[in-house]
Each structure stands twice: as structure tokens, then as C-alpha cells.
Amino acid sequence: MDTITHGIVGALIGKAFFAGEPSRAPTSWNEPPRTAGRIAILACTAGAVFPDIDVFAGPLAHNNLAIMTWHRSITHSVVMLPVWALALTVITWWLARRVQWPAPEFGDLLAIYLIAIGSHIFLDVITNFGTMLWSPVNYSRVAWDWIFIVDLTFTSLALMPQVAAWAFRPLKDSWKRALPLWALFTAAAFVIGPLVRPLDIPFPTGASFVIAGALSCFFLLPLRHGSGSRAGRAKWCRIGVALTVAYVSFAAALHHSAFQNVADFATQAHLNVQNIAALPLPPLAGALGRPHRNARWNLSHSVCPVRRRTVSH
Asked: 107 and 158 in one domain?
């Protein structure tokens, strides 16, 4: 999964479970925070992004194949996870004391980094690129093929609750922030299609209308009942966590169904199968429009279509 999405998910987790509600008194980055929440969010975001630091290995070593040989290796390993979490905890603890910012207890900070780095590893495993989960013990790649490696639907589910929490945080005049944000993101949804279609990425116009309707649930419906202002940041972000978990679970179910269909097809056709895979397509690409021209089969299940293939000899 892309690094930006990892950071968004890390911030979502930090705000949902480790930071509590922000102070309503005006604050500035020029003054020390009043609680440990800021450090908790920064640590969770940094931990969720940290494993992708290995992308710098290639340029430093002048190795053009590093993306295949080193990326998603030792920094993405569950074997090394405690080591990285402990190292980042020590660094953060020292920096927080240095700048005199309140920080979570050392054990709590360690737990934050374990969860944040673990979220990165998990989100990379469920894509189809593969992750060297057990390095340096074993360098084979584990790939579950549940979702596409760049999934704007998943990214949006993690981002929109955080933006909505910001829009509705002050009780007064929240509509002045919510309405422009809804208009901005809706306009972006209609701009994406014409931009990606020349790249042979199917994005039907109907998908833009679906996105606009979904965005209204975050920015318009709460205005009607005034519930957006009362929800609070933690509740908004926990809703985001629930949505992302539900989306990943749905994608896993669709992948299992597609994989089983391919296996049944191979059995019925009496194929001498060497490998079977169910590969994810970009969400909304096939569900609301034509299948990609390189896809031999397409399952148009809601927002998470998958491409199926069999390899035989």
C-alpha cells in the first residue's frame, strides 16, 4: 500500500485510541501541548510510515533492482517488529523530554509503535505485491491479494472521518467548513475520471456520483441533526477504523469467493494447474463500468472487483 495511506491510517488509529479529545482552547505548534495526545498521534503516524524507509536503500546503494530485492523486507518483518518499535520509542521518549512536551508513558509509547508498525505490515500483506514477513529468517514474499496496492476507496475511508472531525470540532459555524469540504472532495471525484481514463484505468462517471453520495454522509447529514459537532474526534476516528476494517473484511470475502470460483473452473475444465490466483482490480473500476481490457474474467461485486486467472501447462 502507498506510504501516504499508511500515514493516514496511523493518524486515524492514534486519534481514535491514544490521543483522547483535543483541548477546545486555542493551541499553537509554537507552544508545548497540554496533554500527551500530540506525541501519541505523531508517534502512531511515524510508526505507520516507518517501514517504507527502505525505499532509500536503492538510491544509496545505486541498485536499480532494490525495489524488488530490498523493499518490504527487514523493515516490514514481524520478526524485527519489536526491535524497530523499541528503537523508535527510545528516540521519541528522548526527543519529547528534550523539547519538554508531555509524552505517554514509556510502555504506552512502545504499544503505540507496535500497533502502528504492525498496521503497516498487515496492510502491505493484504496487497498483491508481497511482503517478506519473516525476514531475515526467510525472504519469501507473503501476499494475500485482498485489495489493490493503491486503493483510493480505502484511503478515503481512513481520511474522511478525520477531516469531518476537524470540520465539526468547533460547535459554532461548522457548516462553513463542512460544505466547502464536501464541494471540494466531490469536485475531485468528478475530475479523477477524465484524468485516469487516458492511462487505460477505467473510472466510470457513475463512480463519481457514488462518491459524492458517500461524502454527504460525512459532511452533510451531520449538519442536519447537529450530530457532527457532538461526536468528538475520537468517535469520528473510531467510525473510520470500523469502516476500514469492514472494507478489508469485505475484500477478503470477495477474494475467497473469486479464488474458489477459479479453483472450481480449473477442476471442471480438467486443467493441469500450476498456480491459481485472484488478483484485485482498482475499486469501482469494474463494478460500475466495463471490465479492464486485460482482465479475462471480472467479478463485479460492489466496490471491490477482482481479476481471476489460472496458469496452466
From this structure: no
Are 80 and 163 members of one domain? Answer: no
Q: Check residue 54 and report its DSSP letter.
A: G
Residue type, 82: P
| Residue 246, pLDDT above cutoff 90 | yes
Mean of per-residue pLDDT scores for the chain: 82
**pLDDT: is 304 or 4 the higher one?**
4
* 34-57: pLDDT as tens digits: 788 999 999 999 999 999 998 876
Do 188 and 230 belong to one domain?
Answer: yes
Tell me what pLDDT residue 35 has. Answer: 84
Under 8 Å CB-to-CB from 277, ≥6 apart: which residues?
145, 259, 262, 308, 309, 311
Q: Are 69 and 174 in the same domain?
A: no
Give the sign of the dihedral formed by CA 14, CA 16, CA 19, CA 25. positive
Cβ of 59: how many Cβ atoms within 10 Å? 10
**Looking at residue 310, what is its pLDDT?**
38
> 167 and 113 in one domain?
no
Give alpha helix (H) positions in the chain: 3-13, 37-49, 57-61, 66-69, 81-99, 106-125, 152-167, 175-196, 205-219, 221-225, 227-231, 233-268
Backbone angles phi, psi at 277, to 5 degrees: -145, 150
User: Whole domain around residue 180: which residue ranges?
Assistant: 150-313
**Judgement on whether residues 38 and 98 belong to the same structural domain of the protein:** yes
Q: Which residues contact 109 (CB under 8 A, 6 or more apart)?
A: 39, 40, 43, 89, 92, 93, 103
User: Average of pLDDT values for 174-197?
Assistant: 87
CA 118 from chain center: how many Å?
Answer: 13
| 169 found inside a domain | yes
pLDDT of residue 171: 63
Q: Which helix (H) or strand (E) holds 308?
A: strand 306-312
pLDDT of the residue at 13: 97
